[in-house]
Amino acid sequence: MSDEIVFYYNPMSRAQMARWMLEEVGAPYRIELIDFEKREHKSPEFLAINPMGKLPTITHRGTVVTETAAVIAYLADAFPKAGLAPAIDDPARGSYYRWLFFGAGCIEPALLDKMFKRPEVERKSAVGYGSYEDVLNTLRNALEKGPYLLGEKFTAADLYVGSEINWAMMFGAPGLKGEAVFDDYVARLTARPAYKRVAAVNKPA
Length: 205
Ligand SMILES: N[C@@H](CCC(=O)N[C@@H](CS)C(=O)NCC(=O)O)C(=O)O
What we know:
It contains 8 helices and 4 strands. It has 205 residues and is an alpha+beta fold. The protein has a 4-stranded mixed β-sheet with strand order 2-1-3-4, with helices on one face.
């Protein structure tokens, strides 16, 4: 069983979020660059690891972890010295889960539906995220108290949710950039040394 983290990676993907997390926890990792143009993510070798053929994917101690939120949460627990997750018996763990799952289950689909201009469905109550506005209001409400989702302490949930907000701002999603609560939050997160290390590596020459 290998203790080495193998990180299947392409910089133009959600794997950037996982890379930031790997840097935050200070875990040694080996990058396996996946070339999307060469369709390496759909090769039989890679599909044997992640049948979805998607990034990020990591392997660690004989386990495959996929899904950005799961990779981030897994790393927080596997490297507890980094202090990026509340302890299992800390009630704050509930909020921590709440925001991680909200990120994957509500923020992500709300952003993608909005940005791909998907037509709204008739039965809104059946849509898990409600509406784009509901999602933004919920985030605004949580971040107004700040400075982080759980209060004073930055956690892996901020890394994930903040990455989504940052990404959405870069691609011009409405209602985010230009609003102090979101701008300040993203500025706080992107000032972290681990974020800067990843951004510097990927800066075009
Ligand atoms: N649900 C997955 C989505 C991962 C995903 O869609 N990754 C994209 C890159 S951002 C990918 O690998 N796309 C390649 C493809 O599907 O062809 C997660 O949250 O990690």
